[in-house]
TrEMBL record:
Keywords: Hydrolase, Protease, Thiol protease, Ubl conjugation pathway. One of its GO terms (biological process) is protein K48-linked deubiquitination. This is Ubiquitin carboxyl-terminal hydrolase MINDY. The gene is Mindy4b_0. Signal peptide: none annotated. It comes from Bombycilla garrulus.
Length: 108
């Protein structure tokens, strides 16, 4: 028997598998589950539990960034620029979003 709290999470949580590595991507804002307006700019945390990751990574996701501004800065739209697999996984839910790693080294 599965608990109702496990079937309907109170906070947004995703299990991720990218490049053969597993991790947990989660947010602390409950509005991400029910209010689309909360999806403009928000923060997500990522933790893999691997010894290379010494602290939980704080990611800032901006779903309303302009792709032409990102291209001028040499961002993810730049030709030949590789992005971490976790960012690409985030973009499967929020297409075109920019992801800032807030000073931590990208994982994966």
């Amino acid at each position: 028997q599965v608990s109702p709290a496990l079937r309907t999470p109170r906070l947004p949580v995703w299990l991720c598998s990218a490049s053969g590595r597993f991790g947990v991507l989660f947010g602390t804002d409950r509005r991400l589950l029910s209010d689309w307006r909360a999806e403009r700019t928000f923060q997500l945390y990522f933790y893999s539990g691997r010894h290379e990751q010494t602290q939980t990574a704080l990611l800032t996701v901006d779903t309303h960034s302009h792709h032409w501004e990102e291209a001028q800065r040499g961002g993810p739209c730049s030709p030949g620029r590789r992005r971490p697999a976790l960012e690409m996984a985030i973009r499967t839910k929020w297409a075109g979003a920019t992801v800032s790693w807030s000073g931590t080294q990208p994982v994966f």
